[in-house]
User: Fold these one by one.
Assistant:
Number 1:
Amino acid sequence: MNCYNHHDTQAIGLCPACHKGNCRECGSKNDMFSCDKHACIAYAKKINEIINYSDSQIKSTNKIIKKSYITGMLSGLFLIVAGCQFYPDDFSLGLTFISFGVLFFGMPVYSLIAKGYRLDQKTAD
């Protein structure tokens, strides 16, 4: 595909609005490979804003998910300890607490292992 403006030059990008090919020279004018038309430039800027917003939401969601894993594991440990305290006096109550503790602790751990995540990984910014 050749550039829409320079017919003898190879296109290296497409205008996100009208999907016409643009060469390096045309793309470097506005850093978005959009045509020189006002409508195309405005459309490309809007697309870039949406992409950037989406990326920021994904990063913040990943942080929230990691915090929920940690909260689930801590809740599970608390329930296990509480169940151990009840276990000698009230067998069924202690066993219930321990069971829910193992469940609360095990689910986030299994999920992290299955996805291959590590809690000490930094989120790519």
Number 2:
Amino acid sequence: MNGKKPFSILWVFISFVIFLFILNIIYDSYFTKKEIKSNIEIASNNLNYSIRELFKSHVDKVAFQLKLLKNQYNINKISFTDMKELNKIFSEFVKIAPEVSSINIGDSKKNGYLFLKTKEGWKNRIKEANKFGVVTWFEFSDSGYLIKKEERFDNYDPTERPWYKLAEKNNQVN
């Protein structure tokens, strides 16, 4: 019997140490998971904030430029059929906001203008309200020289677009 007691005490001691070891692992694991979850939430919030700020800065630049355009249109300084002036405005615009590759605008008179930046330069699509079923495409070099002009039969109807309806309703550029 004397030989079994130290053996039993040893097993109790070893079991107790193993229990403490397991308890320590569980404790560390629980708090590590909590810490990881907290760090992930912090990183996620920081990333969301950074992305929002990045987009906000781009949107603010674009919104400011479009507001200037509206103001110029409203005081009759520009016309949607004055392609040379619009290209001058928009070529400067895409320098300020290079992430913008196209601008499609219309007025309450049902005219439409597309500025499309390409690798070779830019293209314009002019939709004049008095020319039914026809749009005129212009291609310009990057330096602004007219390369090609082409009238195409096209059923494009900007008056069906939501921004046209808003322009018509408010009698302004949208």
Number 3:
Amino acid sequence: MDLDITHDAGVTRIRILDEMTIYTVSSLWESLLPALDMGQPLELDLSQVFQMDCAGLQLLLLVVKESKMRDLALTTAQPGPALPELLALIDLSTALRRSLGLPPAG
């Protein structure tokens, strides 16, 4: 699992550099939790995530839920290929795109 977290101009930028699968979500969550605890707006960069399964999607939904509970702005800078493919496959594209601040598909 490889993750890059930086803090710049009041924003916590999180770049996930690995797959988001059942094999990595536990360690990803342990690394993401301190970033949520910082209390700053979050920017997720998923451009390097080339594999995501339902466990990865669950982790993403948990980050969305936690950021809302903490009243933290959450945006996704770059979704990468895995997320749109998985969202289309399970037909959650519109709902999750809205939650992550992504533009409509198409």
